[in-house]
């Protein structure tokens, strides 16, 4: 998450010649694979920190600071490709700036979890 | 994890679960997600390329000229601390590598089929049958609100084993879709029960 001055402003959106993974220093994977439905939230917003980020990382950080959303939602709403989003979010989490609820920690087939989902769906229907 | 001095509070813990909505090209996945999602279904096509914006005229399958090129998803907040995401799989073969990613960590799947064009959903049925651990149900989308084929014929045609639930669903109808999702989660619950086979394919 270095604030490389040369790249500032040259985003995929403003400059079609910047390939997406330039933003991630060529990395295609973060520290752990974030599930697309993992919820991301922020412990607090730090405007000074935000100012040091490249536009894509900044957009993701600021969006996550305003609401708790999934990795996929952050990617779509900020217009940052999913793979790039994962790497940038991983960096922000490693830096302690964002928190990820790890849905994989518990089994997706956990009985209690599924029963709660069923209860919710019944009320919803 | 908490390294910054700004970490003075932690938001209330929330958990998310995911169901995958699979099926062939134009079987009604986007319609299904739209019927229940509390957010306008997010279609990643919108940010992959502006030039190929998705139109999804699913009511008339044959008239479908463009389709979802990547994934689309919706969200249902089931409780204050529990969010359900629905992820539609991309229909075209070139997006197959995404299926593993979409399915990873999923709590269940609904494979949607159109009885007028059953074959287009064969790959989705095969995927969940053979290549995935995610429990799935198959839902016949009632395009005109009518069931055109007996379910047993559909089961035979799809070569579906007896243990896979086969249901009907009107992808346009919120209650009907909620019923299909309920069927999928109920089926997953049976897999999580002792005697089920969670992780049966874990060695793959």
Give the topology, please:
The complex is a heterodimer of chains A (125) and B (204).
Chain A: E1 39-41, H1 47-51, H2 55-66, E2 69-70, H3 71-78, H4 82-94, E3 99-101, H5 111-124
Antiparallel strand pairs in A: 1-2, 1-3
Chain B: E1 15-23, H1 29-36, E2 42-43, H2 45-48, E3 72-79, E4 82-88, H3 97-103, E5 108-113, H4 122-131, E6 136-141, H5 151-158, E7 166-169, H6 174-192
Parallel strand pairs in B: 1-4, 1-5, 5-6, 6-7
Antiparallel strand pairs in B: 2-3, 3-4
What are the salient characteristics of this protein?
heterodimer, A: 125 residues, mainly alpha, three-stranded antiparallel beta sheet, 5 helices, 42% helix, disordered N terminus, B: 204 residues, alpha/beta, seven-stranded mixed beta sheet, globular, disordered C terminus
Any overview of this molecule?
The complex is a heterodimer of chains A (125) and B (204). Chain A is 42% helix and 6% strand. Chain A is mainly alpha-helical and 125 residues long. Chain A is elongated, with a radius of gyration of 16 Å. Chain B is α/β, with parallel strands linked by helices and 204 residues long. Helix content of chain B is 27%, strand content 21%. Chain B is built from six helices and seven strands, in the order βαβαββαβαβαβα. Chain B has a seven-stranded mixed sheet with strand order 2-3-4-1-5-6-7, with helices on both faces. The longest helix of chain B has 19 residues, at 174-192. The radius of gyration of chain B is 18 Å and the shape is globular. The chains are: A mainly alpha (125), B alpha/beta (204). At the A-B interface, helix 3 and helix 5 of A face strand 1, helix 2, strand 3, strand 4 and helix 6 of B.
